[in-house]
Amino acid sequence: MNYNSDAAESVVSVGSLLTDNQVASLLNLSVAWMRKQRHLRKVGKPHVFTVDAVFIGDVPRYRSSEIKEWLDSL
């Protein structure tokens, strides 16, 4: 999978929590894809995206370091 490694490095260096929009942009995929992957994982159906969301209230966020690890494993 191609992704912008320079962008990923700058995001990861901050050690931040990323939104669905930010992760989708990094992967060049839609926000709807992100949400569907999270739903499929939650209900135990086959899915590709295997990074657990961290919920702040009911708002999902993703650890940038885990996104980088997932990308590196592809």
Q: How many β strands by DSSP?
A: 3
Question: What string, H for helix and E for strand, traces the elements in order?
Answer: HEHHEEH
What general outline do the C-alpha atoms trace?
Answer: globular
Proportion in β-strands: 5-15%
- Total number of helices: 4
Work out the count of structural domains.
1
Task: Work out the radius of gyration.
Answer: 12 Å
What is the average per-residue confidence, as pLDDT, rounded to a whole number? 87
**Residues in helix, %:** 40-55%
Q: List the uncertain runs.
A: none
Q: N- to C-terminal separation?
A: 7 Å
Structural class, please?
alpha+beta
What does the main sheet amount to? Answer: 3 strands, antiparallel
Which sequence of strands runs across the widest sheet? 1-3-2
Describe what this molecule looks like in 3D:
Strands 1-3-2 form a 3-stranded antiparallel beta sheet. The protein starts with a helix and ends with a helix. The longest helix has 12 residues, at 31-42. It has one domain (5-73). 11% of the residues are buried. The mean pLDDT is 87. The protein contains 4 helices and 3 strands; from the N terminus they run H-E-H-H-E-E-H. It is globular. The protein is of the alpha+beta class and 74 residues long. Helix 1 runs antiparallel to helix 4 and helix 2 packs across helix 3.
